[in-house]
Write a structure and sequence with these properties.
single chain; alpha/beta; Beta-Lactamase; Alpha-Beta Plaits; seven-stranded antiparallel β-sheet; disordered N terminus; binds guanosine-5'-triphosphate; binds magnesium ion
Length: 645
């Protein structure tokens, strides 16, 4: 395709007019030999006028066509000048005919200089990886792996006339005439350096922490997974350190968040200085850092951990007129062929770090795999790893224990307290008391409680939809589920529950939350606020274990409680102990005055049940009435497993 101006068509029209005039002249001469001169003159004049007219019409048509062509050419020129892509056209022998301004800028050639030169001379491209020169029309499309959608496209480096290089994506296609003859080639390319930079930035941001520039938790976990794999496949030994700064909050509280941020940045350099080239240091969040020590036996890992700890402790952070020093508590877990999943290693390290804090901070706690007799900490760490595994393998189960309404003619619709059990490695069912203390110490309690609550809500929603729960509110009963102090103080809990209850709609009064008296009273404001919020969502509240804590009835006035569960310690001996009897009686009476229903826990024999009925306690719960039973799906009879929240 030539974009150079074409010669004028007027010469052609002129020639056509002259030819017509010459033909007429010959015809008139022939006529003149046989006809009178006047007739010849008239015919000649008419013919001449006709010739002029035809010539003028042809000339006008030619002018219009030429103008249309001119407009199209201008449009093409302006388009090629204004687009951001580089465009090069060649003739059939791959010799340059035209470069648009972008192509001129990137190749360093002007159209005038380049015209007639071979494409390979002006448009020099190299393989991105090897730097080898490529023939743009033959080899280049195969040179890169991130090729475009079809043949004739690819990304390579364009080398300009003066050596300037730039990654480009390009495509080329032949220009053909109507009958298929190749007239030339058009190459279109664009600079991809900016897109590449942006993609690299995004990639970096996804795997790094913006504050310190260290890798983030996600990338750390990925690398940990790789290390576990090499430990398994090549019998190599590595180590993981989990570090949490001691009393870091003091810096934030005294000098503000900006000071805390600066300390985190400076400590990053302090710690990096203690690590080997092959190690990874990551910021896992807040003031928590993680280190992966590659090919590092436990003794060496311990030396590095202590060196890190000492460097952090010795570092003095100066902010305005104040100087701070912080410590670091470190959990160290060796990574060997026997190590489990990444999440297991992390939870063990977390447990060790917690242990280091508990022992007084500024120390390293090494994880030792249990052998034979296990110490308290080790058995707890084992329990933590079992809990983590139960999360991964879905080995938690929901149970429920009936709460029976007392008194003659009491409706026998079911109320339940929901309980959670864990299946351990040996397949034994562990009650909540067996794993909840370890879960609480190692920050796993909220996760378990969230799972319990969300699984229960989903289960009840399905039961309600299946018509298994009475539509009549007075015959519906309730399901109560426990919330610990940790969950009560979790600021995101109301949002979490709101989302669940919006997604899985339940009839009002079906879901009840149990909070122990001690928890409620030691978090009085938070508990009262949460209770009011959840009551607004149609839930009710029970105060659990009443009598064992601060036992002040005055608190009941501040807490919007619907049900009060009398602690089992007072209930079990009610039939024989007059003091216990009097306490239960008093709790029951005052609750009723306040409009609160009562439940007696731990009912284990008929005598106790008879006394409670005589006292007018509303409900009773205990093994004598019914032991806990697995909650199963009505349709399949399969146990309800805890779904992920
Ligand atoms: N400046 C700053 N502070 C943060 C950032 N992320 C979390 N924190 C704060 O870091 C603190 C970390 O909590 P903790 O580790 O429990 O506090 P600590 O004072 O170090 O207590 P111990 O670890 O128990 O010794 C919290 O107060 C967070 O608010 C951050 O990006 N910048
Ligand atoms: Mg800390």
């Amino acid at each position: 395709m030539s974009l150079a101006p074409r010669p004028s068509h007027y010469a052609l029209v002129g020639t056509f007019g002259l030819l017509l005039a010459a033909l007429l002249a010959v015809a008139i001469l022939g006529l003149a030999t046989h006809h009178p001169p006047l007739l010849v003159v008239i015919v000649g004049a008419l013919a001449l006028a006709g010739t002029i007219l035809v010539t003028l019409l042809v000339a006008r048509q030619v002018k219009r066509t030429e103008y249309a062509l001119y407009l199209e050419k201008e449009l093409a020129q302006v388009t090629l000048h204004s687009i951001g892509d580089g465009v090069i056209t060649t003739d059939a022998d791959a010799r340059i005919e035209y470069l648009n301004p972008v192509a001129e800028q990137y190749t360093g050639w002007s159209t005038a200089d380049a015209r007639g030169r071979s494409l390979t001379e002006v448009y020099r491209v190299t393989d991105e990886r090897t730097g080898k020169a490529l023939d743009p029309l033959v080899e280049a499309p195969k040179a890169s792996t991130d090729l475009g959608p079809g043949p004739g496209t690819g990304s390579v480096r364009l080398v300009g006339r003066h050596g300037r290089e730039c990654p480009i994506r390009y495509s080329h296609s032949p220009i053909r005439s109507r009958d298929g003859e190749t007239l030339g080639m058009i190459v279109v390319f664009h600079d991809v350096s900016q897109i590449r930079t942006m993609a690299q930035q995004l990639l970096w941001q996804a795997s790094h922490d913006a504050l310190t520039g260290l890798v983030n938790r996600r990338e750390f976990e990925r690398r940990l997974g790789d290390l576990i794999e090499t430990a398994r496949a090549q019998q190599r030994e590595h180590a993981l350190l989990l570090m949490d700064l001691d009393n870091f909050k003091t810096v934030n509280d005294t000098c503000g968040h900006a000071a805390g941020d600066e300390l985190l940045r400076q400590l990053t350099f302090v710690m990096l200085a203690r690590m080997r080239g092959s190690d990874t240091l990551a910021r896992l969040g807040g003031d928590e850092f993680g280190a992966l020590l590659e090919s590092c036996p436990p003794e060496q890992a311990l030396r590095i951990a202590h060196a890190l700890r000492e460097s952090v402790r010795e570092f003095r952070f100066v902010w305005e007129d104040k100087t701070f020093s912080v410590g670091v508590s470190i959990g160290l877990v060796p990574i060997t062929a026997e190590t489990g999943s990444a999440s297991r290693v992390l939870s063990l390290a977390d447990a060790c770090c917690y242990e280091a804090k508990k022992k007084g901070r500024d120390r390293v706690q090494v994880y030792r795999p249990p052998e034979g007799e296990v110490s308290g900490t080790d058995s707890e760490l084992q329990m933590v790893s079992q809990i983590s595994q139960a999360f991964e393998l879905g080995r938690f189960r929901l149970y429920r224990q009936p709460i029976v309404q007392l008194g003659p003619g009491a409706p026998q619709h079911p109320n339940y307290e929901v309980l959670v059990r864990m299946i351990d490695r040996a397949g034994n069912l562990i009650p909540a008391t067996g794993f909840m203390p370890a879960a609480e110490r190692y920050n796993l309690l909220t996760s378990i409680e969230r799972w319990v609550v969300s699984s229960l809500i989903e289960y009840l929603h399905n039961q309600w939809n299946a018509g298994a729960i009475s539509r009549e509110p007075s015959q519906r009963g309730w399901y109560s589920v426990n919330l610990s102090g940790t969950s009560i103080n979790d600021k995101s809990l109301p949002d979490f529950l709101r989302n669940l209850l919006t997604r899985y709609r339940l009839p009002p009064g079906l879901l009840c939350f149990e909070i122990t008296e001690t928890t409620a009273i030691s978090n009085l404001n938070t508990a009262a606020e949460l209770m009011r919020e959840l009551k607004g969502m149609g839930c009710s509240f029970a105060l659990d274990d009443f009598g064992t804590g601060f036992s002040s009835f005055a608190y009941l006035k501040y807490l919007p409680v619907d049900v009060l569960k009398i602690a089992g310690t007072f209930v079990v001996d009610i039939a024989t102990d007059a003091v216990d009897y009097a306490i239960v009686d008093a709790i029951n009476r005052i609750s009723h005055i306040l409009g609160i229903q009562t439940v007696a826990e731990s009912v284990e024999d008929a005598g106790t049940l008879a006394k409670l009925t005589a006292l007018g306690v509303n409900y009773a719960q205990g093994y004598f009435l019914a032991p806990p039973e697995a909650i199963v799906h009505a349709s399949t009879g399969e146990p309800v497993e805890l779904a992920s929240a």
